[in-house]
Specification:
Layout (H helix, E strand, L loop, with lengths): L25 H31 L6 H26 L1 H22 L1
Helix pairs in contact: 1-2, 1-3, 2-3
Amino acid sequence: MVPADTRVSPTMTDEAPAHVFDRDRRSLTAGILLTVTTFAVEGMGIVPALPTAVRDLDGLPLFGWAFSAFMLAWLVGTVGGGLLADARGPYRSMTVVCRTRSADRGCQVSRC
């Protein structure tokens, strides 16, 4: 019989576990944090601005749909980005997000 303190877990290795702020992951971690912060700030901006926009456009019956559509798109994008990152690595997922956001910002600027 093997003493309990000498058993080795099947997941234990001699290597130290990788951390999110290790040198090879630091820029990716910073990019993810900045992206999530940007989305959070944008989401917080929609909440106070949406009632005014709805009132000006006489779209009060659609108020719930407008806010729900934004949150649903955010949720689907987060899940889709996570699945893409798991399947093909984080670089491609972050590239898609940044390009999409840049295109969106370009469209918004051109409407001004």
